[in-house]
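Explain this record to help learners:
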Amino acid sequence: MSIIVDAKGLSCPQPVLMTLNKIKEIKKGEIIVKVDTDTSKENVSRAAQSQGWEIADVQENEGGYQLTLKK
């Protein structure tokens, strides 16, 4: 089961902090992060990778991006 972090409408560092909090909470599994800017997408990706998570998929959709993180 995927955990969803909806950070749309929030500016950095909020999406990164929300993602890192969820990473610490679940330790491993799958997290879907929704953001609406390129900057948030890049920052969340870097933060997740620094914690040992893989960016399994990035989809561009209306109004933003959906990142799938796995560990």
Observations:
- The helical segments are 14-26, 38-50.
- The chain has one domain: 3-70.
